[in-house]
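re: ur question from yesterday

yeah so i grabbed the chain u mentioned. its 227 aa long if i counted rite. heres the sequnce exactly as i have it in my notes:
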Amino acid sequence: MKALVIEDDPEIVESVSLAFAIGWPTVSLVSTHSGKKGIELAEGGDIDIIILDFELPDISSLEVLRQIRLFSSVPIIILTFSGDEANIVRGLDCGADDYIVKPCGQLEFMARVKARTRDENQFAEELPLSFSQLRFSPSTRQLCYRQKEINLTAIEAHIIHHLMRSEGRVATYSSLAEEVWGHDYPGSVDALGIHIRRLRQKLEADPSHPQLILAKSGIGYFLAKPD
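ran it thru and got these structure tokens back, copy pasting raw so excuse formatting
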């Protein structure tokens, strides 16, 4: 297992290295402060996960994402100081699998890294699910809604999987965080909200007035039952 860290702040690199040394010591870690060098290392083909700083000194991190996604589907987690939703969504739209707001606790960091490395095999044996007009194939992450096929990110697939298995009942924030990241953590409600909003943009006719993915204030989310 090899992880690539593309980050120009030595303190963050040291913190990430320490998190791996304590939480996953068998992982081989390679780092670079350059986005261009990061692309070259990713293209080598033996990287299993990438930790990418949102602000790099040489080229845009979004460009790094775009270029890596031309040749690789390796999980990519972006690191950001701001937590600004617009920037986070831009990163997710360019191919990032998840994001972490710096600074981040070591336990949360490693849990989220491990969750993304498990994604490809987690649904391999799962049978397709149906709920109302939704049809979801966990093994391919393909969702069909009203005759339209929709590609989902790994996290979106976990959310839909959990909501469909709940069959219209409210899925709590905590249970959704467990499904997506393996455990609940401070800030998971906000993170879930970002991914829910992206799902609504893919599924809802009017995302600002959702009819399919609904919220139970202070509790969680659920899928609307058919009329």
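noticed a couple things. The radius of gyration is 18 Å. also Residues 2-119 form a domain with the Rossmann fold fold (CATH 3.40.50.2300).
anyway ttyl
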